[in-house]
Amino acid sequence: PIQFPDKIGRETVKSIHAGNIFGMPGSGKRIERTIAYFFTFRDGRIAKERRVYDFTSMLMQLGVLKAKPN
What we know:
- The protein has one helix at 55-61; strands at 7-16, 30-42, 45-53.
- It is mainly β.
- The chain has a 3-stranded antiparallel beta sheet with strand order 1-2-3.
- It is elongated.
């Protein structure tokens, strides 16, 4: 069965690509990525947390991936 989280959150992180990531040396480019959080609570405490990172958007901002043309 599908289990839905009790709470959902989102965070936007802004940074500068200064160091090595996925084998790519720092480029100095400003990047922004979103992280989605999914929480399940049990007895008033977090029982489970899942995170989903938007790596596709980050790689597009770094020029590694290109947007699909319409």
